[in-house]
């Protein structure tokens, strides 16, 4: 009989996840701040199952970055659906408490659970210079979702060798002091590479948000503040009924292009490039 | 088997295959009799004859065990969407298979807090459970508290009979009430819930939705409106900025964006119900 680790991963892949990995909840607990540990969310947590998938390759052929974000965001939603069904699946098949933790942030920018950390600890990739997103050795950047369970499972553990920087990026950095991702977005990203390894890495999240998430919830808050502060009634009317405010409100109600990035740093990464190209 | 009986069997089977744990049928007239004007199935779909109610979307035991109060609410909101999806598919099935008009009950509210159709009332009329003291929700003897969604159709179907013997109060709750004038749910939330039990049945029941909402739906759409109003009325520009860019307002906006803990309860009163607890015992979930 197949072991439960394989059975659970096979189930997830059967539901349309591209990859699945398992991390130990206590290993993640040790690395996370209080209030953001798997055991803070589910006290009996033993394992964290992480699933990942790619946006459609067609996403990369969309010229308008706003549409890119929206299409990619929907792939993320599909993963969330699989992860919450996985909690049901584990409870009914194996009888262990399980839950799909809300993927959203608490307050402004603080995710309840660091999904990137979980993916790393489940062996699904390593931190990259591109916004510290997790880079999978085969598929490149992926979206992730997790299920926390009280089921003790054998953890896959983190990868031994970092995926980023790719050999061609190391060569490029040695030549011109940059990599494809940093080159695509020098305002948000910077980093240094030595002996083929990342030595320092900086991702300016606040700047990235103002550039790429221009119709996100915080963007709407800014606009509401702008309208509230505006003393000229005609100008206020223009703000509230104008295109930009309309787009932000629509983005909120249709859950489109909320938290997705512009993905320009993702686009030139050589890792997993073949999965972003079709006929 | 009559044609009607075959059709009903097909409908219930379709719902089951699509994830409904229990399915029942009520006549539109029986719901119309109790629902207030503007909230009757016959007002939503002209010529409506039957309402089919699907129940499911039980919260994972793991979510119940989470100490973070908003997690069960979040999971519940995800589960509610799953049940609406079943109703949506069922309406489509009825139109295609039986050539009758069918719609799933609209999720929109009329006014601030009134659902267009009371799915809980429909569930009672379809024989799926009875009113409980806990949050005035429908309690099913086997499945405890479920989420419900309805399909309204012009198809005439035979109704299921409403349950005669109320599920709530459970025998242990009657005992507890006789001893200490409270039940597990009343005890956990005396501010929102009030009830009187006599001879083993509920004589009076009160669920204070307004208190409940301000306690447990702190990131609901109404909370958003309240904060916005306060911020707009705030004369100090610095304070206004803090309110509009602060964590609390951010949470309400995110909650709307992600359909996240919008109108769900903290579930504290459901968690302690013995009928609800028994419904999980079959699952043997281990901690
Ligand atoms: S482009 Fe190169 S440096 Fe940038 S994330 Fe990809 S592998 Fe790393
Ligand atoms: S705990 Fe459950 S059965 Fe008991 S009174 Fe409350 S809702 Fe009814």
Characterize this entry briefly.
Chain A is an alpha+beta fold. Chain A has helices spanning 4-14, 25-31, 38-41, 65-94, 115-121, 167-176, 180-184, 205-212, 217-229, 233-241, 243-253, and strands at residues 19-24, 47-53, 98-99, 105-106, 110-111, 126-127, 134-136, 140-141, 143-149, 189-194, 197-203.
The strand count of chain A comes to: 11
Poorly predicted tracts of residues of chain A: none
Tally of DSSP helical segments of chain B: 14
Order of helices and strands of chain B: HEHHEHHEEEHEEEEHHEEHHHHHH
Percent of residues in beta strands of chain B: 15-25%
Straight-line distance between termini of chain A? 40 Å
Task: Categorize the overall geometry of chain B.
Answer: globular
Oligomer: heterodimer
Report on the biggest sheet of chain A.
4 strands, antiparallel
Read across the widest sheet of chain B, the strand sequence of neighbours is 1-2-9-3
Mean pLDDT of chain A: 91
Q: What is the mean pLDDT of chain B?
A: 89
Order of strands, main sheet of chain A, comes to: 1-2-9-3
Molecular shape of chain A? globular
Number of helices of chain A: 11
The two chains with the largest interface, and their residue counts, are: A-B, 41 and 38 residues
**What profile does the largest beta sheet of chain B have?**
4 strands, antiparallel
Helix residue percentage of chain B? 40-55%
Return residue spans of chain B where pLDDT drops below 50 for at least 5 consecutive residues.
none
Bound molecules: iron/sulfur cluster
């Amino acid at each position: 009989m197949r072991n439960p680790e394989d059975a659970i991963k096979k189930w997830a892949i059967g539901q349309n996840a591209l990859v699945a990995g398992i991390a130990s909840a206590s290993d993640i607990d040790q690395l996370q701040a209080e209030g953001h540990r798997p055991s803070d969310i589910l006290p009996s947590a033993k394992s964290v199952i992480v699933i990942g998938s790619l946006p459609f390759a067609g996403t990369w052929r969309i010229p308008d970055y706003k549409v890119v974000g929206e299409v990619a965001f929907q792939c993320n939603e599909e993963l969330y659906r699989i992860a919450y069904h996985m909690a049901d699946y584990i409870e009914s098949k194996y009888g262990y408490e399980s839950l799909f933790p809300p993927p959203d942030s608490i307050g402004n920018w603080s995710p309840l659970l660091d999904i990137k950390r979980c993916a790393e600890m489940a062996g699904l990739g390593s931190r990259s210079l591109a916004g510290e997103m997790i880079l999978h050795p085969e598929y490149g950047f992926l979206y992730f979702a997790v299920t926390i369970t009280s089921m003790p499972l054998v953890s896959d553990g983190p990868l031994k060798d970092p995926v980023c920087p790719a050999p061609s990026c190391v060569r490029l950095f040695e030549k011109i002091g940059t990599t494809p991702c940093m080159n695509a977005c020098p305002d948000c990203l910077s980093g240094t590479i030595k002996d083929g390894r990342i030595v320092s890495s900086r991702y300016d999240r606040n700047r990235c948000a103002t550039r790429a998430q221009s119709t996100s919830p915080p963007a709407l808050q800014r606009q509401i503040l702008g309208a509230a502060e505006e003393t000229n009634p005609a100008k206020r009317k223009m703000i509230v009924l104008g295109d930009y405010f309309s787009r932000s409100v629509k983005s909120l109600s249709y859950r489109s292009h909320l938290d997705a990035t512009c993905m320009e740093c993702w686009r030139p990464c050589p890792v997993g490039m073949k999965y972003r190209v079709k006929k | 088997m009559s044609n009607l009986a075959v059709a009903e069997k097909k409908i219930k089977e379709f719902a089951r295959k699509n994830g409904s744990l229990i399915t029942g049928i009520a006549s539109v007239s029986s719901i119309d009799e109790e629902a207030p004007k503007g909230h009757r199935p016959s007002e939503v779909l002209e010529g409506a004859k039957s309402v089919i109610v699907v129940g499911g979307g039980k919260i994972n035991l793991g979510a119940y065990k989470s100490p973070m109060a908003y997690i069960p609410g979040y999971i519940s909101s995800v589960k509610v969407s799953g049940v609406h999806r079943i109703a949506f598919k069922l309406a489509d099935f009825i139109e295609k298979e039986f050539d009758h008009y069918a719609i799933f009950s609209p999720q929109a509210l009329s006014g601030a807090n009134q659902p267009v159709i009371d799915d809980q009332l429909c569930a009672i009329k379809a024989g799926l459970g009875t009113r409980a003291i806990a949050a005035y929700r429908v309690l099913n003897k086997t499945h405890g508290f479920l989420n419900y969604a309805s399909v309204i159709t012009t198809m005439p179907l035979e109704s299921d009979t409403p349950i005669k013997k109320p599920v709530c109060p459970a025998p242990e709750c009657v005992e507890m009430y006789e001893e200490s004038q409270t039940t597990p749910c009343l005890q956990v939330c005396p501010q929102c819930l009030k009830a009187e039990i006599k001879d083993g049945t509920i004589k009076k029941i009160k669920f204070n939705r307004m208190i409940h909402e301000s306690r447990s739906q702190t990131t609901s759409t109404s909370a958003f409106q309240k904060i916005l109003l306060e911020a707009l009325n705030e004369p100090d520009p610095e304070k206004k900025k803090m309110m509009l860019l602060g964590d609390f307002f951010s949470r309400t906006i995110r909650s709307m964006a992600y359909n996240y803990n919008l109108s769900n309860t903290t579930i504290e009163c459901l968690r302690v119900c013995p009928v609800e607890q028994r419904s999980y015992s079959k699952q043997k979930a281990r901690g």
